[in-house]
């Protein structure tokens, strides 16, 4: 009886089987864990995971706060991104160039700089002081520029022949967007939107510089108490992966479902 080869994909299939996937994921995970354990053994370092358990509440609180910040930031960034995408298509030129300038400035500057400028200059001038609300706004402003480009690319991916056909049938601009463009764009942009959510969750770690008690900030505080840096940051990485890996997997599922091609 021929046994399936667990290390090589079948020539007839573009995707490995579930057994092959499980086996190779376990193999790679074991290799990476082995390298990590070997490194600690070489350093003659004893892991103090009891310190992580002792401050588990800080980890859990930070984990939940990161989810809350990412959730509201995603909603607000979708609103900002959608507005900018349609503003970029506007025939009203000030609105059109505002959208272009916004995207170029946000995408062309580091998020850390934007956090400092928005928090210490703009928010101070506007007498805004709630760090959590400001954190959500800053992340949304940053992510909105990227979502704008995702939506714009989705709109431009609609074939011109469909638009011309709609015009010839007497569709108004609103009807073209409502019945032809938006339903198709929605399906096409779902995978990259999921990818943007992963980036947004990781970017939320930079809010620690303005003392927002999300996951990274809480881990930094625990580290200042315990000095167990390796243990704290390894757990930090694992917690971020718990958030991002399922979203990345969902993104790939959506990509296959809608036959999305980057």
Would you write up a description of this structure?
InterPro entries: AA_ABC_transptr_permease_3TM (IPR010065), ArtM/GltK/GlnP/TcyL/YhdX-like (IPR043429), MetI-like (IPR000515), MetI-like_sf (IPR035906). Keywords: Amino-acid transport, Cell membrane, Membrane, Transmembrane, Transmembrane helix, Transport. There is one protein chain. 77% of the residues lie in helices and 0% in strands. The chain has 262 residues and is mainly α. The chain has a domain at 67-212: MetI-like fold (Orthogonal Bundle). The longest helix is centred in the first third of the chain and has 33 residues, at 56-88. It is flat and about 75 Å long. The mean pLDDT is 88.
Strand content: under 5%
The CATH topology annotation of the domain at 67-212 reads as MetI-like fold
**Per the principal axes of the C-alpha atoms, what is the gross shape?**
flat
> Which CATH class of the domain at 67-212?
Mainly Alpha
CATH architecture assignment name of the domain at 67-212: Orthogonal Bundle
The CATH superfamily name of the domain at 67-212 is MetI-like
Q: How far is the first residue's CA from the last residue's CA?
A: 41 Å
Please report the number of helical segments. Answer: 10
- What average pLDDT do the residues reach? 88
C-alpha Rg (nearest Å) = 23 Å
Report helical residue fraction: over 70%
Low-confidence residue ranges: none
Q: What composes the largest sheet? A: none
Total number of strands: 0
Order of helices and strands: HHHHHHHHHH
Helix/strand-derived category reads mainly alpha
